[in-house]
Structure formats: C-alpha cells, structure tokens
Write a structure and sequence with these properties.
The chain is mainly alpha-helical and 1220 residues long. The protein is 54% helix and 4% strand.
C-alpha cells in the first residue's frame, strides 16, 4: 500500500512533518495534542534515515500523525451534532462497557473533554457488537446493522423525550398544551395579560383558574382536548407548565418535572435574568436590527410596546381580510345579474381601454356604482343613470348594489368609531361638526393610485396615525368621486373661463367650515390629519380661488383605484392603527402613576399645570395628557378609554369632558414610556439614495433571486423535503405514529384540494380555503426562501375568495399564461433593469429585444414559480388543517404555520432596507436560525436535534480526515468512491434540510475553550467567508476581484485564488467536446467571474454539472444517478479525488506552521509536465522562458541568503573576539 505521505515528499516545507523520533508512538498509541505535535516536529531533527528522516511509518502511524494535525476541521453541523450527542454517547458507553467489560475503551466520561469532536464514543453499532455479538463495523460499506445502530443511538438518547422550560412559557404540560391550542397562550395574550407575566405565572395557573376568569374559553379548550385525544377533566387542576417535562416517546403521556416552590423560585430568577439580558442596552440595539417584534425601536419602553403591537397585528389584519371577504361575497352575489341587466352596452372610457375584456369592464362598473352609491348616501339609482343613461336597472339590482355599498360604509364606520373611542387621531370630519352638514359629506375613504412615498408607508403598521387618517383635501372634501372626476378631467376647468365654470358647477360643494388644518405633515405629498374645527365657511370667491389653485396643481386624476381596493386599504390601515392604540393603552394603564404617589397635587389652573410639568420633568415623568398628545392621541377620548379599562360601562355613559380632562392631569408616566408610545407616530422620508436603489438595485435583486431558484427542480424539491421535515418531525406537533398517519392524510387531501377549482369544491372545502385565505396561509406571491412570485389581484374579472397554486400541467391555464407572457415581452415600454452601467445595461437590452428567447425564459421561470407555489401550498395548507383537527383554533393554527414555514415580510426596518439587499437570502437564514435555536432550546432531543445528531454520527470523522473545508462545513457523509474508479471519496454534502444553513457558519467554533486557547481565529475567518459568499452578486463580485479570492470555495488558509478555480464555461465546453484542454481565450477568466455573479449564473453551473454526462465512464467522478440527484433534488454529492485530499493536507500543515511564532510561507508556481506537453510550441516556449526566469530569481535569492549567513557569521565572530 503506497504511503499517504509519499505525495508530499517534494514539498520542502512539509518534509518537516517527518523529522520526529519514533518515540512519539508509544504503546498507548495516542496522538499528541496539536500544539505539542508541532513542538515535537520542530524540535526533533534526528532520525534513522537520510536527511534526518525516520526510516518508515506504518499507515496507522501516518493516520495518527495527520489526524492530530488537522483535528480542527469538524463542520458546524458536526459540532452541533456532537454536542447534542454527549448525553447519548455516555449512555452508549455505559451499555457497551457493561457488555464488554472494557471500561478503558468505553469510558463514559472522556467525551466531556472533547464535546464538539466525535471521538471517544461508542456508536450504536458498537453497542450491538458488544451486547449482541453483531459483526464489527465496516467503515467502507453501508450495512443493515448500521441502520439498526442508528436506532440504538436514537433510543439510547436521554434527551429524546425531554422538554425544557427555558423561556417565558416554561415547559408546557398537557393542560398548557390545551390552553395553547385554544389561543390562551398566544403572544398577544402573553404580553397583555398580567396573570401570564413572570417565571412562575404558568406554574401557578391551572385550566380551572383560567376558566374561572374567562369562562368564554371553555368551548375552545374542550375542542382542543377532543382534538388532542385526552379527557379535559383529568387535566383541569394540572399546572400549565413546569421547569421540564419528560414525555414517553410515541405517546402523549407527559410527566412534569419541577413544579414545587423551589422550582418556582428558580423560574422567577431565570425569568428576571432573561429579561435583564433581553433589555440590556447592547442586546436592545441588536434586537432593533434583527428582531421584527421590536419594529426597529431601541429603548426598552419602545420595544415593550412594539412587541404588543406586533403580537396584536396578525389578529387585526385577519379582521381586515374578513371585511374584504364580506365585500367580495356581496360582489359575487350580484355580479352575474348586473352583467345580464347591463347587456351589450358601450362602456365609458373610465372603465378601461377599448381592447379590455368586457368582463373586466363590467366588474369595474359594478364596483364603481356600488361605491359611488355609498358615497351619495344610497342614491345608487341616480349614480347608475349618470353612468349608464340608457340602462334601466331593476329595483332588486339597485337594492343589491345599495346593500353592498352600505356594507363597506358600515364596516369603515365601525373600525373608525372604535379608533375614535380609543383616542385615535382619525377623522372623517371635524369632531365638533354640526349635524346640519355632517350628513352632506360622503363618508367614504378614497386613496391615491400609488402609495404616497415619504410619509406613512402602507407596510409600516406600528402607527397611531395611518394613511387612512390623513384628511381629505379641503377643496374637494364635500365631493364624491364622480364630481372630482368632472372637476379634474373637464377641459373647461383649465380654460380662460375656468373660474366662471367652477362657480356655476362647484360652488354648491363649498364646505360649511373653514379650512383649518390639524396635524399638518410637511414634505413631498404633504397631508393633513383631520379637517379642523367647524368654523364660519369661506367667502364664495375665496373658495373658488382655492378650488382653481387646487385644479391647476393637479396634472392627472388621482383616484383610479376600485372602491373595493380603497375599502381594503382603509380597513388594513385602520386595523393597524387599532393595534397601535391598543398597545399604547395597555402600556399607559400599567405604567401610569397617580400624582399623589409622586408627591404632587392635581393641577387646576394653567399655571398649576406648568409647575406640575416642571416638577414631573425633574423626576423623569410627564403628565398622562402630554403622553397622549405625544402619541398623537386625543387626550379626552383616550382618558375615557383608560377609565373604561377598569370600568367598561364608562364608554356607554354620557361624555363628561371635565372628568376626562381631570383624569389625564391626575396621572403621570415616565418620559421613557411616553417616548415609547410617541415612537408609534413617525413620518418616514426615504432618502434619495434609497429611491435610486429601489429603482434599479431591487429589480436586479428580484431578477437574480428568481433566476437562481425557480427554474431548477432542485430548489422546489429541497424546499418540499425541508418543509415536510419541519412539519412532520421537527415541529413536535406529530407525536405518535397515528399522528404521522393523520398528517400525511392531510398532505394527500391538500394535494387534491390544490387541483380542485373553487367552483367544484364542496361547501366544507370552500369554507376551509376561504378561512385559509383570511388567515393568509398561502399566497401565490410568497414563494420559498423569500423569493417573490406573481401577485394575484382579488379585484379583476371575478371576485377571488381564495388563492390556490397554479396548475403546472399543460392545459391548466397555460394558454392564459402564454398570452400574458407574450404581452409582457412585446411591450415596448417594458424594460428589465436600467442601472446606468453599460456593462450591465447592454446585455440586458440585447436580451430584452429577443422576444422569442424571453418568451421561453419566462415560461421556464413562471413554470418554476407554479411548481414552487404547489410546494408552499403542501408545506402550509396540510399543517393548517391538521392542527385544527388536533384542536387548534384557526388563528392559533395560522400563527403556528407561520412560525414553522415563515412570513418573510415580517422584518425590521433595517432588514427590509439594508440586510435583505446586501444579503439576498437574509430572511430565510435569519428565520431558520431563530427556529432552530428555539427548537433546540426547548426540545434538544426533538426531531431537529436528532437530525443534526445523526448527520454528525453518519459523518464519522475518524474514518476520513482529508475533507476540503467547503465539504467539511457540510454534512460530509461518505457516499462511496468515484465513478471512474480513481482513488477518492464521494460525499453526501447536503440533505436539503433547513438547519444546515445556519450551522454552515460553524457557530460553536466560538466556544470559550477555543477562544481561551486562541484557536477561534480560523472560525472567525470561516464565518466571515461564509457571510461574504452570501453577499449580493453586485457586491460580492467586485470584492472577489479585488481580493483575488473566491468566498464560496475555500480551504484551510482562506478563500481559493480565483485563477485556481475550475472555470465554468471552459469546463463545460471541454466536457461536451471531449477535449482534455479547457477552453481559454483572452479575458476568459474575467468572463467566467462575471457570469458567476449575474442572474444566469446557475444556468451555467447547471450546464457544467450536466456536461459530466458527456464524459467517458473512465473519466467521470459521478454516476448518472448522482448527477441527476444533484440536478433534480435537494440532495448534493461532491467528489474529492485523492490528490485533492493531499493538497488540502498540505494547506492544513502550512496553516498550522504559519500560526506559530516564526512561521513563514513559501509558494511557487509551476506547470505540470502533462500540461506542457499538450501546449502549442509558441505557448510552451513562453512557459519555459518564465520557468528559466523563475529559477534565476530563486538562485539569486539563495545567493543573497548565503551572503547574509556568511555576513552574520563574521559579525558573530567579531563580537566573540571583542568579548574576549
């Protein structure tokens, strides 16, 4: 057998490895500590062979030497698995030790000294060998006994049934799980209910106590008990949680550990410590960047109130979608009849261009009449005659349109009144407007066509004032949409006689109050909050002048949305405001203090108020009245609501402004909490540079993400497997074999439901998909890993009650898709991206003009999006229905599905504006990290922990220590040899599971022991390179060019030099043509690096992988099946030849030597003989000339070194003579 070290003899810097004595290998056979090894290598210069080298090494001695030298190459995945395996390995050592009696070999304590390494542990196979006499493990082959060994490792793990209470809710017992399913432990409840606060809170509570306080929860709890399959009476008096739980595997029987007083004291202490760390200044600042629950707030009070807003928002969003659902139902009930009565009529231009589909126009017309009738206080027939003079609608149809309009108006009024009662700043009208003109104003929300940039973005829901609260323009506040259309679109308004025309047609719409503005917001698209108080109206001519100025400032009609769209926008924004107001009142009710507790009297006069404010400021407080005002709340209404928290009847009693005014001046809150509430109102202006990024950087990012993901089957297969793994194994919601069967029944049903058109569904199916749509379980625009898909309009040709994935098969909407694609690619106005950079814009412009190529490309992308829609449906919808069958309420089931499968829109401002742009797939990595940490913290022996542990055990670091770093940081499971028969190893480097992503950063390398020993430097470099490899290609590409290194492929010393990488294009062409030489031409390397940082990059790398199929079998590293697996699934295999392992070994040794004091690096460039033989004569002449020059430089360097040595000897002799 050839020596492993033979291949490194020629490297003069690695010959030092062999300059050590044979005494190193004693009878113990143990390798030295890594540092001691190097010291031994450097201090031993003697030996029995030439040049001081030992005569020979046995293969085992070579393995020992090399294993010690590169023992730090364990991947992050393996480190995590090894750490989780410590308790299980101790149990296996004990069993194997009892079976064999060899306690020296099976020491159950030695793994504690190396918890992150997989050494010194009995495997499951060892246990079978020592106890049942099963044949020892063959490391070169997979056997049935290996899988049996995995079963032993699973069953012998003490962590498997353990649940830990390292969090606010503790470890939930059966009673706690029932309450959770019923929604009693939702984040909103947990943050707002004082009974759930504190470490011991749930340990003191029982279901009986909960029901005594909230008897209305009994039906939901009974449903939860039935779904979970337990009797409610048995658990009525069981504590909701404990310090830990121990569940018998494959059963629901849970034992609670730690429910006594000492346990409760510990829980309180732990909770106090957790809260102190959570709100420590450095942690707060980090959370403001990465924790969506903080909404970007940095202060403790700001984060506390933000968490409440964030917890309440999903419920309020659900209510807004419920309102929209009701509107769409009303539309569906009357639309067909409306179309029949409308007949073959010519539509006005306002309903769309001439070539628009008649169904779409009729839908817009129906929506228009409903909304216009609502604006005109039910005068639908009048509106219909104006729009369609020649059509006489039946009384029944008029009644249906009026009913639909009244539904929207009443829904808007209801949420508006609720916000007003809480002190919200929203106004349809001045609060003291007289009834004489209140009924004249059309109380119906209208919104601009586009969101008004620079103020109150629609997506920013943490506000007490929203875009819907912005008052109408004074000049048109008494006009409905039809009247505004006439004003803005009629040419008379811009002619010479405009003022006279305005006087004749619009003076009747003069508001009966003055244009006093309240809460003016400056800047572009300035707006106003409210319309001001009812005062004397303007003079007629003054109003006409203002109306004329308003008209001349407008260049186009601003209200082109459907009424249904405006209704939904208003509902979303007002419900967001309601969540913020709720959170503000929750904080004020808990944090306000009576003035007398602060040693102050209640002020009665303005002078008293001023003195009280000054005195409070010295103590760090403000009046509750000022806190309300700072949060843009109306103090009197807010005070009334505060009083109602303790006395609900207060809202029903006649308003007494004196009482409310006195209340807001009788209490105070800290300045910090007042500022926290004030943070709910903020006008956000986008800087110019951000708008530039939004205009071209974001479209490029979208193009990049969809082109490296959607067209490739492996993307969807990987996410399907990963999503199902999370649901069925890692979530903890599937506890028994029967649960597993039930879950996959829901998967099967979900697959059938995805293929069933809405019109053909049964009533229960319709109700389920409609409820799922309201809960936002699935949308076509939300694809895997944060990739954005096509948006589906609820308002188009027909009301859409639920979103389903597209049918990916031919005939399932393929014609419609092709038609839409052709319209898109042939639209002369459509441009892909304009960056201003010719090197990018020119190729894109060339591609834009190739309509046939673009059509095919769009079919590939859209088809991939359709496949991935089905994947997301299967990952979300079956879990949603399964959880409801298990007793979860729909809202709690939706929250759990979002927790497991992620809402990528839920992000902090920093993540939205910065992180997701710098790192395109930031959202997935961050959310997967959070899910993994939470699961491992609460259930270290759960499904995810076991998968991580098994990946580490399958890798078996003792069998192969020559893995390249980019492989060592993966699962790195040996998977046989190379297809060609060449020496080497095939590795399974990825299973496509989500937890592999965060562990690729090797977080456990930063453990205290490594830091203390100074061994974490390489981990910092590795984690840094991993992060750099994920940068946006427009950032990563230039950085790689500057550093000359690849951030993705790296070795022990760092990133691989770009010139050493296997070229994508050159390798593909060589494989396909059968040419041994790579395709090279001037600029080929630069082109290769450019391609790998552009949207088409994955097309090229996929072609390179597929090109291996063209190679002869004697030259291929992968079999056809392995190539197909890489291309079509989430599994990844990587081949490593023996010569590559030797190169990695050299790099490891060089790295260790460089890390020692006095270590130096020597590199040289050369051309292998076989490469030179294939060169052309001219090229070979150039190479030989360079080699001669290189040798000449080396000779000159050696000459200078010898001269320096001679000089040093002379100087040393002179010093010795002088000392004598």
């Amino acid at each position: 057998m050839p020596s492993i070290l033979d291949s490194i003899y020629e490297d003069p810097f690695e010959r030092i490895l062999r300059r050590r004595g044979l005494s190193l290998y004693g009878s113990s056979g143990q390798g030295l500590d890594q540092n001691e090894l190097l010291r031994s290598i450097l201090r031993n210069n003697g030996g029995d062979g030439p040049d001081g080298l030992p005569v020979s090494y046995t293969p085992e001695q070579e393995e020992s030497l090399i294993a010690d030298a590169i023992s730090g190459t364990t991947s992050g995945l393996a480190k995590a698995g090894n750490l989780l395996d410590v308790p299980g390995s101790m149990a296996r050592d004990i069993i194997a030790g009892l079976g064999s009696g060899d306690w020296k070999k099976y020491n159950p304590l030695d793994q504690i000294l190396s918890p992150l390494q997989g050494t010194n542990r009995a495997s499951g196979r060892d246990v079978l060998t020592e106890t049942l006499g099963v044949a020892p493990n063959d490391p070169n082959a997979w056997e049935i006994a290996d899988f049996a060994g995995f079963g032993v490792e699973l069953l012998a793990d003490p962590l498997l049934p353990l649940g830990l209470g390292l969090g606010g809710k503790g470890a939930l017992g059966t009673a706690g799980k029932l309450l959770k399913r019923a929604g009693g432990l939702s984040p909103a409840k947990h943050l707002t209910d004082p009974a759930l606060k504190g470490g011991r809170a749930l340990m003191d509570l029982t279901l009986r106590k909960v029901l005594d306080k909230s008897p209305g929860m009994l039906p939901d709890i009974e449903r939860a008990a039935k779904g979970y399959g337990v009797g409610l009476a048995e658990y009525m008096d069981e504590p909701l949680s404990s310090l830990a739980t121990y569940r018998i595997p494959l059963t629901k029987k849970t034992h609670m550990l730690g429910t006594g007083e000492r346990a409760k004291d510990f829980a309180d202490a732990f909770d106090a410590a957790f809260q102190a760390v959570k709100y420590a200044r450095p942690v707060r600042h980090v959370r403001s960047l990465a924790d969506p629950r903080t909404l970007g707030e940095k202060s403790r009070a700001g984060q506390e109130i933000a968490e409440v807003v964030h917890a309440l928002t999903p419920g309020h969003r659900r209510e807004a979608r419920q309102a929209l659902h009701g509107h769409l139902k009303n539309m569906a009930e009357g639309l067909e009849g409306f179309r029949e009565e409308l007949g073959d009529v010519e539509f006005p231009a306002m309903f769309g261009p001439a070539d628009m589909d008649a169904k779409a126009k009729s839908y817009r017309a129906f929506d228009y009449l409903i909304g216009l009738g609502a604006e005109r206080k039910g005068r639908v027939a009048e509106a219909a005659r104006e729009v369609f003079p020649g059509v006489e609608f039946s009384p029944e149809m008029i009644a249906k349109m009026d009913q639909a309009g009244q539904y929207m108006k009443e829904a808007n009024d209801a949420i508006h009144r609720a916000n007003e009662q809480m002190g919200g700043a929203a106004h349809f009208l001045p609060s003291d407007a007289s009834e004489s003109f209140t009924d004249q104003i059309p109380r119906f929300a209208k919104h601009f066509n586009q969101p008004r940039r620079g103020q109150l973005p629609i997506e920013d829901y943490s506000r007490t004032v929203t875009g819907s609260s912005m008052g109408r323009n004074y000049e048109t506040s008494m006009m409905d949409r039809k009247t505004v259309e006439k004003l803005l679109l009629s040419p008379e308004g811009r002619g010479d006689d405009a003022r006279e025309w305005l006087r004749e047609n619009f003076l009747q719409y003069k508001p009966p109050f003055a244009p006093r503005r309240v809460g003016y917001v400056p800047g572009e698209n300035a707006g106003h909050i409210g319309l001001g108080r009812a005062e004397a109206p303007l003079e007629d001519e003054t109003y006409i002048s203002k109306l004329h100025e308003y008209l001349l400032e407008r260049k186009e009609y601003p209200y082109g949305n459907l009424y249904g769209e405006d209704f939904y926008t208003y509902q979303k924004q007002e419900h967001r405001q309601h969540a913020s107001l709720h959170a503000a009142h929750d904080m004020f009710s808990k944090q306000s203090k009576p003035l007398k507790d602060l040693g102050l009297e209640v002020p009665e006069t303005p002078a008293d108020v001023a003195r009280t404010r000054a005195a409070l400021k010295e103590q760090g407080y403000v009046l509750l009245e000022d806190a309300f005002t700072g949060a843009k709340m109306r103090p009197k209404e807010a005070s009334r609501f505060q009083i109602s928290i303790g006395n609900p009847d207060a809202l029903m009693e006649p308003a007494d402004n004196a009482v409310f005014d006195a209340y807001s001046k009788s209490y105070a809150v800290t300045i910090e909490h007042a500022n926290g509430a004030k943070g709910l109102f903020r006008v956000l202006n986008d800087p110019e540079w951000l708008k530039t990024i939004q205009d071209w950087f974001d479209p490029f990012t979208k193009m990049f993400k969809e082109n490296v993901t959607l067209p490739f089957p492996g993307f969807s297969v990987r996410n399907l497997l990963s999503g199902q793994f999370v649901n069925a194994i890692a979530s903890g919601e599937v506890e028994t074999l029967q649960d597993l069967t039930n879950y996959f029944r829901h998967v099967t049903d979900g697959l059938k439901l995805a293929k069933t058109p809405y019109e053909k569904m049964s009533l229960p199916q319709r109700e389920m998909v409609e409820r799922a749509s309201i809960d936002r379980i699935f949308t076509r625009s939300r694809l895997s890993e944060g990739v954005e898909g096509p948006r589906v309009e609820s308002f188009k040709n027909e009301p859409r009650f639920a979103e389903q994935p597209e049918n990916v098969l031919f005939g399932g909407g393929l014609k419609e898709r092709h038609k839409a694609i052709r319209e898109y690619v042939t639209d002369p106005k459509e441009k892909l991206v304009e960056t201003g950079l010719k090197v990018i814009d020119k190729p894109l412009d060339w591609f834009r003009r190739r309509t046939g190529l673009r059509t095919a490309h769009q079919h590939v992308v859209k088809g991939g999006a359709a496949v991935n829609q089905n994947v997301e449906w299967l990952n979300r919808m079956p879990m949603y229905t399964y959880l409801q069958e298990k007793g979860y309420t729909p809202a709690e089931a939706a929250r759990r599905v979002e927790e497991l499968q992620f809402n990528y829109k839920d992000a902090t401002p920093f993540e939205r504006e910065v992180a997701s742009r710098v790192v395109p797939f930031w959202a997935f990595s961050k959310k997967m990290t959070a899910l993994m940490l939470k699961d491992l913290t609460h259930r270290p022996g759960g499904g995810m922990g076991q998968a991580i542990r098994m990946s580490a055990l399958a890798g078996d670091p003792e069998t192969d220590v020559f893995k390249p770093d980019y492989i060592a940081q993966t699962a790195a499971i040996p998977w046989g040899g190379l297809a060609s028969g060449e020496p080497g190893t095939q590795y399974l480097t990825g299973l496509g599971l989500g937890h592999e992503d965060p562990l690729s950063f090797d977080p456990l390398a930063f453990n205290p022991i490594s830091v203390f020993r100074g061994e974490s430097g390489g981990a910092v470099q590795g984690a840094g390179l991993e992060m750099l490899s994920r940068l946006h290609p427009l950032i990563k590409g230039p950085l790689e060019a500057i550093t000359g290194q690849s951030f993705f492929q790296r070795g022990p010393i760092g990133g691989r030099p770009l010139e050493d990488l296997d070229p994508v294009v050159g390798r593909t062409v060589a494989n396909v043509t059968g040419n041994e030489d790579l395709l090279e031409f001037p600029g080929s390397q630069a082109l290769d690096r450019f391609i790998t940082n552009t949207p088409p990059s994955r097309y090229f790398t996929t072609a390179r992988q597929a090109s291996e199929l063209f190679l002869p079998e004697t030259e291929r590293r992968k079999t056809n099946a392995q190539v197909a697996m890489n291309l079509l699934s989430g599994f990844r295999t990587t081949a490593v030849a023996e010569k590559s392992k030797d190169a990695i070994l050299r790099e490891h040794v060089q790295k260790l030597m460089r890390g020692m004091v006095g270590g130096r690096e020597f590199t040289t460039s050369y051309f292998p003989r076989d490469v030179k033989e294939r060169m052309s004569p001219d090229r070979r002449a150039v190479v030989e000339r360079l080699e001669v020059i290189n040798k000449l430089v080396q000779q000159r360097s050696r000459k200078r070194r010898k001269q320096k040595e001679l000089s040093d000897k002379i100087k040393k002799s002179q010093r010795q003579l002088q000392s004598q």
